[in-house]
Design brief:
heterodimer; A: alpha/beta; Rossmann fold; six-stranded mixed sheet; globular; B: alpha/beta; D-Maltodextrin-Binding Protein, domain 2; four-stranded mixed sheet; 6 strands; about 65% helix
Chain lengths: ~300, ~425
Amino acid sequence: MPLLEVENVVKQFDGHRALDGVSLEVPENSIYGLLGPNGAGKTTLIRIINCITAPDSGQVRLNGKQMTPEDVYHIGYLPEERGLYKKMKVGEQALFLAQLKGMSKKDALKSLKYWFERFEIQGWWNKKVEELSKGMAQKVQFITTILHDPKLLIFDEPFSGFDPVNAEQLKCEILELRDKGATIIFSTHNMGTVEDLCENISLVNKSKIVLQGNVAEIRASHTTNTYLVKTNKTLDVNGFELIEEQRKNGIFEYSIKKAEADTNNSLLQRLMQQTEIVSFQEILPSMNDIFIETVTPHS
Amino acid sequence: MSKIGLIIKREYSTRVMKKSFILLTFLTPILFAAMFALIIYLGGIKDDKVKKIVVVDKTQLYKDVLKDNESYIFQFTDASVDELKKQKQKDDGEYTALLYISNDLRIDSTAATIYSNEQINLELKTYVSGLLNNYIEEQKLASYNIPNLKTMVENSKTDIDLKTIKWGEDGEEKEASAELATIIGMVMAFIIYMFILIYGAQVMSGVVQEKSNRIVEVMVSSVKPFELMMGKIIGIAMVGLTQFLLWVVLTVAIMMGVSSIFGNDIDMSSVQKVQEMGQVGTQTMPAEIQGFITALNGVDYVQLIVMFVIYFIGGYLLYASLFAAVGSAVDNETDTNQFSMPLMIPIMFAIYAGIFTAENPDGPLAFWCSIIPFTSPIVMMVRLPFDVPAWEIALSIGILVLSFIGSTWLAGKIYRTGILMYGKKVTWKELWKWLKY
């Protein structure tokens, strides 16, 4: 059973429809990507899932049950527009936010100790937030989001404000959270991380979901039948279309497009008859290409 | 602790721990007390320099009348006023003032004039006119040639102290004083006025800060926007009440401390002063003070304090919620003016209406302004010490309560939309739309 179900959600703002019949299912213990260009309605959808705004119609169910206000205790939300009280001390603030998520002071302190040690930021406890750099503040913010051990985590552009090293650490943390059983909804413009992290995605454009499904399946279905073949002898171009050829250190690299009728195996068989194959790889379109192709209006 | 409790606690503790709060809270009463002490002290100091008053007396009648005392000595001269004026301009320190008597004061009571380069002080004026008055009075009485007339007149002199007694509903009699009522009313009205302005503005800037810090979306994923708003409003109200309470306690404590140190000299000298003044004419003073003190005991403090708290909270809630709504609608503090002006105007109007109400506490302005909720917390406080009919109080409070419920509801609606809106120039039309989301 999916952990989160969004069914036919409609949200109308004055003059425009922010969400128009959006449905999606987030399987438990997976990472789900919510993609879309700016202004597509992602943030509105995320706010509806967080019970910040109510949908005009449609339903949001958590564990098969209509969401109640108490369910926010089981959600950790890192909004895109995020920040902390500048004048408050880091520790005090984290404790305050944890208590607002229903944690007891004792549990919150214990959990904070664990995370501060893990991120090696114990020394920040008594610093004011305004003394932290942006990246440091983002770390604190991330900790406050996951502190209450939520079942469902929603990250909106989590990597903004992180340097590559910290972004990598964050990525590992997110994967580990999933391995520990959390379900993660992940909204980003960075398609590279979508390929790395997400199992399923929904692509929202102009208030509607235009593409939905498993990342691998989506990429496979968008295949352009292009392959990268490396050989140690020249290849006789016959029965497929050559796009590009290149010679590097005695290895021949061919970018080829197979005929519709061919399967991977039949193509490979044909190539094997000609020469020694060093490598054979299907070039799947990147999520980036798919994203651009899907949201760009075709004339 | 409930969520709203946590928010109240955060608002309260971060504000109360601020250096500016601690400084302001502890310095204000000290400053007040210092100012007070300074006034009493300066007032108590006798100017020990003996001042010379040159007298040009054309009539030669008053040489014996103008007696020297410890502050003033009179020097009679035949020089003309013009000469003396020239001399004064050349050499300033020679004499303080010039008294010129041009004619017999029995015939022309305006014949005496005092000239000086400085403002003539009241003490000199009352002293001189007292002496002359007494003398002329005696002369006039003597001119009737009736034996013992002076004693007869003395005996017939009366000082009627018109007591004003208010009948309470239970027939209990209370001494009332219009002056006292005015002072008490204005002080309370002013405190409420200050409070609404200062702490209303704090609510507004608090909301704007949360918005510009981008903390607000993190918060509303845990608490309802309404809880966040109310938590802030209540927390700040408690900060204000704390400050007010500390001010009262500290002021009283400092006053007591000051008067126990300097108290004795000050009291002695001011009592002396009153007595001196009494000798020269203004005999009504002590009676008035007496009336004041009895009236002070006649004030219904319990009613006043209860009403103060009700109007204080009611007025604050009404305005603070609207200030919160304004804060939520803008992106930064510089943009608040457009929307906060319409809130400032009724508050300012209320304090002016309060001043006029003190003059005519039962007039139509007073009545309507103490019923309209935007002015009632201030204006009603001015009227209360003058005894307002119970139905008017009930109506005023009723309307105030309904209005702040209405305003918080309204503000809540604007707030929950406003806090999540960024980078949009908000118009009044837009705000109206938010109400309907």
